[in-house]
Amino acid sequence: MALAAQTVHKEQNKKRLLEMFERMTEEQQLIYLRHLEKLQANWKRSHARRRCQIDVDYDTPDGSFRNTIKDISIGGVFIETQEAFSIGQEIDLYLTSPINQVSCMVTGKVARRDKNGIGIKFENLTRRQQGIIMSLMEQRG
Question: Which is nearest to 104 in space by CA: 72, 136, 61, 139?
Answer without folding.
Answer: 136
